[in-house]
From TrEMBL:
PROSITE patterns (alphabetical): BPTI_KUNITZ_2
The protein's name in its UniProt record: BPTI/Kunitz inhibitor domain-containing protein
UniProt source species: Diabrotica balteata
Keywords assigned by UniProt, alphabetized: Signal
Top-rank lineage group of the source organism: Eukaryota
Amino acid sequence: MKTTVLFFCFCIIASSEVFGEENLPEIKIIYEDPAATAARPFRKEDCSLGVEQKIGLTSCRADIPVYRWSNTENKCVNDFYSGCHATKNNFQHKEDCVKIATPICSS
């Protein structure tokens, strides 16, 4: 773990030397606010999402069985959720996935 952190720090320092402060590439991490995600209805664009948003390094390590819509299989499938940053395509029960996602995603 310490080696990984040190390597990551080295990469940041090295990139600032190569690019200079003013020339660093802009990195945008786009994610939806959890409150906004919870408040809005399930949409067509949610059909292609995984069960969670990948946001940087996370310490969430749970393996919670959930269901999600799979565009590849065109149905609700089993998946595992780490416990952080859930998307709308994350259902505790298969019945909920079928009821909510199927009418929107299968059309």
